[in-house]
Amino acid sequence: MSWKQRINKYLSTQRLTDKWRNRCIIDKSSTRLLRKGKKFYIDFSSNDYLGLNHHPVIIESWNTGMSLAGVGAGSSSHMTGFSSFHADLEMQLAEWLGYPRALLFISGFDANQAAISLLGKKNDYIIADKLIHASLIDAVINSPAKLYRFNHNKIESLIFYLNRYCNGEKLILTEGVFSMDGDKAPLKNIYNQVQKSNGWLLVDDAHGIGIIGDEGRGSCWSAGIKPELLIISFSKAFGISGGALLCEDDIADYFLQFSKHLIYSTFMPPAQAFALQTSLNLVKGAEYLRYRLNENIKYFQLGIKSTSWKLIESNTAIQPLIIGNNDDAKVLAIKLAHAGCWVNVIKPPTVLVGTTRIRITLSAIHKFEDIDILLEALYDANR
Question: Would the N or C end of the chain have less CB density within 10 A of its end CB?
Answer without folding.
Answer: C
